[in-house]
Amino acid sequence: MDLGRYESAGQVLEAAYRIRVKVGQKADKNYIVPRLKLAIAQSDAGQARRLIEDYYGPIPDSAPISIRLLQNMQAHAELALLTNDGKMAASIGHRLNETIRSSHLEIYLRL
Amino acid sequence: MHSSRSVNEAEPVLVEAKSILDASGNYSSPIRGNLLAMMAENYSSTNLPKSLAYAKEAIGIYRKYPSSIGLMQALYISGVTSSTAGQNEQAAAHLREAISLSKHFNGDPNLDLPRDYAYEAQAENELNRYSDAEEDYRAAFNYARALNGDQDVDTLETESRLGTFLVSTSRPKQALPYLEKAKNACLKTKGPDDPFYTPQMLLQNGMALETIGLPEQALRFVSDAVENRRKNRPGTQYLGQMLESQASVLIGPGAL
Fold this sequence. Notes:
heterodimer; A: mainly alpha; B: mainly alpha; disordered N terminus
């Protein structure tokens, strides 16, 4: 079975989006994360940046740990890698690791 | 209404009932509360804002009276719909109150508790209250198994949800036996064409397999779930969620 089927994935996401509009459900992580994953897989840095900015915004300087915060950091690190900014990616990755390790939720949040 | 295959089948009847109550100036009776709760449930998979508004109005009416089974049911519907809408603080609070009322009116244990605890756990999970969520997922599963046995649908549902939670909190090896057992029991008792439980079991098992790095197996299960849902419940919110999961698997392994 072939994976990496980006065109099919895009069509499936469009169908999912139409259902969201129809039932009045806002875009949440279930929709945004695969959209972002697709943009990164297709090396579409512009689209990835737009999705990250629209959904996550910048990484906050200080915020309580949450799945959303970790996904935000992970998304920024992936975007940095995509744009060949290895230094930034490593910096975010280090901070992500420290955020998890210093949390009482570490047992639940191993990456 | 639960057994209807058309989510719109009940709507004309409910709307007519509401117009009768409106015409007679009945804006605050428990009967109206009951009708509004039914309308909230009716719209829960097709129009979330409408469903939330009706649930809120139903709760407001019931709170004018002593605690009742009607209030319990309205809180439950509001809890589930709030969770779907991402309003998880409200979802957890309403479900916690529904559980308390359920134990008061229906005893402990009772058949509603597995479902109620499972939804409360889901909201707590979204709020990063993992310890509370795990406790409630396990309560849901233990109540279901004790009340109904290993192959009942509530047992399958709660077992599958506990497994999915364990995957999402970094314990896939603990999760897989729950998920495999639930899926296999579901296929055995309900069959592959069952429109309610089978697609959910297939989806959850598939997404767990993707998480642990088995995307080919995952895609097979997720695609079967989507095909089932397209056939039986096209255009619904859960089909949308399934499609988003299918897209993620189609893209292939990635960091996100």
